[in-house]
Amino acid sequence: MKYFPHTQQDIEQMLSVAGLKSMDDLYGEIPQQLLFNREFDLPEAMSEVEIRKFFETLGKKNSQLVCFAGAGVEDHYSPSVIAPVISRGEFLTAYTPYQPEISQGTLQYIFEYQSMICELTGMDVTNASMYDGTTATAEAMMMCVAIAKKRNKVLVSATMNPRVRSVVETYAKYQGVIVETIAEKDGVTDLVDLESKLAGDDVAGVILAQPNYYGIVEDYTGVADMCHARKAMFVMNAKPSALAVLKSPAEWGADIACGDAQSLGIPMCYGGPYVGYLACNSANVRKLPGRIVGATTDVDGKRAFVLTLQAREQHIRREKANSNICSNQSLMALYVTMYMSVMGEQGLKDACSLSYSGAHYLADALVATGKCVMAFDKPFFNEFAVKTTVPAQKILDTLASEGILGGVRIADDMLLVCVTEQRTKEDIDKFVETVKNI
Amino acid sequence: MIRNYDKLIFELSKEGRVGYSLPKNELKDRYCICNLPDNLKRESKPCLPQVTEFDVVRHYTNLSNKNFGVDTGFYPLGSCTMKYNPRLNEEIAALPAFATLHPEVPVEAAQGALEVYYNLAASLAEISGLSAFTLNPYAGAHGELTGLMIMRSYHLQRGDTKRTKVIVPDSAHGTNPASAAVCGLEIVEVKSTANGTVDVEDLKPLLDDTIAGIMMTNPNTLGIFETEIPEIARLVHECGGLLYYDGANLNAVLGKCRPGDMGFDIMHINLHKTFSTPHGGGGPGDGPVGVRAGLEHLLPNPQVKKNADGRYYIENDALSAGNVSNFLGNFGVLLRAYTYILTLGCENVKMVGPLAVLNANYVKESLKDVYYLPIEGVCKHEFVFDGLADKSTGVTTLDIAKRLLDYGYHAPTIYFPLLFHQSIMIEPTETESKETLDEFIAVMRLVAKEALENPDIVKNAPYNTPVRRLDETTAARFPKTTYKQLKG
Amino acid sequence: MSKIIEGLYYAESHEYVRVEGEYGYVGITDYAQHELGNVVYVDMPDVDDDVTAGEDFGAVESVKAASDLISPVSGTVVEVNEALNDNPELVNSDPYENWIIKVQLSDAAEVENLMDADAYKAMINE
Fold first, then answer.
1. Is residue C34 part of a domain?
2. Which of A139, A403, B149, B161 could be bridged to B321 by S-S, CB 3.0 to 4.6 A?
3. Which among A407, A410, A435 has a CA at the least distance from the CA of A420?
4. Which residue of A has its CA nearest to C43?
5. B39 pLDDT above the threshold of 90
6. For the whole prediction, is pTM greater than 0.95?
7. What is the pLDDT of residues B378-393, one digit of tens each?
8. Rounded to a whole number, what is the distance in Å from the CA of C56 to chain A's nearest CA?
9. Domains along chain A?
10. Radius of gyration, alpha carbons of chain C
11. Is B481's CB within 8 Å of A293's CB?
12. With respect to CATH, is domain B88-343 assigned 3.40.640.10?
């Protein structure tokens, strides 16, 4: 077996040093009835040649479709330089940087990641990353409750991605936190409903999305004041790739920004690994969960980076820690750090511009087919909802037969369609042509 | 390697440089992003670096040279199972047939991916002796939280609302009590006996109708197998509680005994420990959770199922403990773990635990005359020294750890478990050869010798690393966590 | 040798309280700061929060440890030592001068359950 270096002679010598006679002696103290004594019902060992073949065959059972689906996961351009660098063994096979003297590579890229996330969101501090956008938002909910101390209710807009909402609700359920929904009006958060739900002075946090589930860029003017007047935290779940163009969470007056950074070039990979981000103001840094990297110097005065504020974390605080999170998504944080470095502000803006133009072109063309009408009359970014005059499923099925993933069905007569910089005008025209012919 | 490279990517930035190329926007004139209402647009300018593609490649390659990984050298890090991360796993995970798959594709277009998920879950169930697995949780701690949610849901759905406490051994990983707290459970600590195992006599009086269950790892964090486990399982089940198995130490028994057969009801596995997926400098990992028969419906949504004609589909169970992730976990990590299991095959899975345990005992026995071994006897995959045998020169565990860095080794886990003051926890894993272990043993002996003959050299180590010991106090008192804060 | 001041009341968990009229000044002892090492952060309650004898009201953090602060007395927090926010190291330099919270005592007799200087000295010398 290529992963086991032991020769028979090694085994005998090592057993002898350990004062044991046989391999069975290594488990001599274990009660007999606990020892596994049959063959595993698993396939026999496969060679590399066979494994390649095996996955090639499996891969053919997936269909490669031209992607117009979004709903939180988008098909973005990923620069060629990222994959080879992040797969360097020094990054890929490193452990958490608990020994900073030999982990400066990891620590520095996390510092750079934190710097860039703070630039995009406008917030003061962020951690070394979270599992994904759904759990980052759940952790934001926990931060609100911890900061508010005596309140245990949060409000989530009806325009939040339902996947995010369901994870927030799951975490909340077990902590006795009440999650109430802020009503939706014409595709956006009903601010009148928000104000009335805040009136009880019992809300710890308000969680809103930007752009929202329907791709609409919501106008949150006055929301920060409304929340702060009632001593509630304002949490914004924002798509980071859009923040080169859209008003940042800090500019809206948010106290916490969170979300999924998959849109910063990470392959879709059937749902993960991605990376969540969670950022806040300096005042609340002690309530921020997870690892944080800070700058310092070594004994020779050389600049260096280190995990800091560790006394907040589970390995020290145990049940009193502000979260149980241990792992971050370090390698994916490197992924998006390299992406943001390659793209720069201008690259992000250009990608936004292409996505925006493509989405608006497609929206107009779809309406012109007579098979769809815009579901909402609101400004949108690169994703939009349409009401369909034929069953939405029929549209998706027809598009799929042409090799197109036409979007996400969110009601029997409603489709959510997303365009990124990866979609060409030809892709879009084929989409429209196919729908027209239904 | 350019170890003195010390630039931040921001410090390479020069106005006007670009590192990307994108298609021309043919539709810009008709559909310009400038048409977005002004009050929705950003006012401030995000300060991202302006660098070339080559700058990015060289910068991060240079940073990688300041890092240590399993590919670089031996990583005797206790409780972390730093085994070899096969490259084949990486190749498979990068296959476009999987990497380009959107989670919202219809299940008919994702049969291959769903088959991977389904078969990996079934393999883990067979290996661990449980009935069914979810692969949705993203990491070990996330798996613990998921498992505890299942435990609570089990009691609540039976109308048993009093069970709000969970028992955790004092030797447990910090994530155990933290996960219990996040799940809304109160923690009750059970003491260890002198040899580090759960004290059954201390456990008995804790068991009543407020106990939801117990969290254990077996072998425990000292690398000692809890031989009383059948009795503990009987006692906990008798009081109506469930047993949770923290899979952090599963490598010790992989192929030799199964948590399900020990009496555990729920467990998590760290794919990034036991199943060879890379740690990635702290993630992504994946933390599958398994349950015994009768608890399957409580696994988180979405769930992957297979129908009678062999087609896979996705289902949401109304009685599920809830949703804990965006979709089906870190799917790319699942591909790696499945590749590893297929490479091992049924015959080699059986050898993982035994060879890991052989390596640990070999190192332990070769060093116990110079390092203090508080608990004698055959260990499992890891063991703990309590500092040097001769502590007269004041050299601490931290000093030893730092000196090892000079000799090209990653340090063992230090100051954990908390049961000893100078814990040094060593886990060699099964993928290290006798020669590597012999060299490590020689270096450990050399450091022990230095500690007596020239203690200052050890106390001030390391010297040969890209940076030396850091001022962590200032870092924590005056946190500078971004480039903007660093510039002041 | 850790500094111990006469006239203060001490808890087994190494907090002290200095009583002045209806108020008590609560901090950690010199022994405690020494054991903890360089203090990097003091997690304090808010003014008007209630504290209860025997229950925690915050924590003191060093680089790699954290210690819960257990209140030796019950009452209402009327002041927190804001200086510790910017200069947590004051707890190391003089823990008795740099109290953490000022409490309006709800039960002045509670201090009788605490140790005096001699008893505390005996305890830490054990």
1. yes
2. B149
3. A407
4. A286
5. yes
6. yes
7. 999 999 999 999 999 9
8. 11
9. 66-77+344-436 (3.90.1150.10), 82-338 (3.40.640.10)
10. 13
11. yes
12. yes
A279-333 pLDDT tens trace: 999 999 999 999 999 999 999 999 999 999 888 888 878 888 888 888 889 999 9
**A374-415 pLDDT per residue, tens:** 999 999 999 999 999 999 999 999 999 999 999 999 999 999
Find which of A312, A318, A420 to mutate to test the B interface (most B CBs within 10 Å of its CB).
A318
CATH of the domain at C62: 2.40.50.100
Residues of chain C positioned with their CB less than 8 A from the CB of A309 = 41
Nearest C-alpha neighbor of A354 from the set B47, B20, B54: B20
Residue C3 lies in a domain: no
Q: How many CB atoms lie within 10 A of CB A99?
A: 20
With an 8 Å Cβ cutoff, the interface of chain A facing chain C consists of: 149, 286, 309-312, 316-317, 320
Instruction: Of A325, A256, A305, A258, give the one whose Cα is nearest residue A285.
Output: A256
Contact B477 C41 (CB under 8 A): yes
| Closest C-chain CA to B476 | C40
Sheet holding A203-210, edge to edge: A125-126, A276-280, A256-260, A233-238, A203-210, A153-157, A178-182
pLDDT in tens, A337-360: 999 999 999 999 999 999 999 999
**Residue with the two structure tokens 């003017």:** A221
- Chain C positions touching B472 (Cβ under 8 A) are 63-64
- C-alpha distance from B283 to closest chain C C-alpha (Å): 22
Looking only at the bridges linking them, the beta strands covering B289-291 and B266-268 are antiparallel
The band of B1, judged by pLDDT with boundaries at 50, 70 and 90, is very low
Residue of A433, A437, A419 whose CA lies nearest to A66: A419
Q: What are the domain boundaries of chain B?
A: 9-64, 88-343, 353-473
Helices first, then strands: H and E counts in chain A: 14, 17
* Chain A environment of B98 (Cβ under 8 Å): 59, 62, 269-270
Would the pLDDT of B58 be above 80? yes
In a domain, C2, yes or no: no
Q: How far is CA B143 from CA A127, B35, B289, in A?
A: 21, 46, 6
Domain housing C46: 9-124
Question: In this structure, which amino acid lies at residue C26?
Answer: V
Nearest CA in chain B to C63: B473
Q: For residue B112, what are the contacts with CB-CB under 8 A and spacing of at least 6?
A: A58, A59, A60, A61, A62, B97, B98
Instruction: Assign 3-class secondary structure to A247-311.
Output: CCHHHHCCCEEEEECCCCCCCCHHHCCCCEEEEECHHHHHHCCCCEEEEEEECCCCEEEEEECHH
Select from B98, B182, B221 the residue whose CB has the most chain A CBs within 10 Å, as the one to mutate to test that interface: B182
pLDDT of residue B403 exceeding 50, the answer is yes
- HSE at residue C26, side-chain half, CA atoms within 13 A, is 36
Second-level CATH architecture of B353-473: Alpha-Beta Complex (3.90)
For residue A48, which of B96, B87, B274, B114 has the smallest C-alpha distance?
B87
Contacts with A286 from chain C: Cβ below 8 Å: 41, 43
DSSP E strand stretches across B34-154: 132-134
For chain C, the domain total comes to: 1
Residue position matching structure tokens 């047993």: B243
DSSP state for residue C38 in the 8-state scheme:
S
Mean pLDDT of chain A: 97
- Nearest alpha carbon to residue B486 among A160, A360, A23, A297: A297
Report cis status (omega within 30 of 0) of the bond before A43. Answer: no
Spatial CA neighbour of B376 closest among B212, B166, B255, B224: B224
Are the beta carbons of B97 and A18 separated by less than 8 Å? Answer: no
**A334, A113 contact by CB (below 8 A):** yes
A308: nearest CA partner in chain C: C63
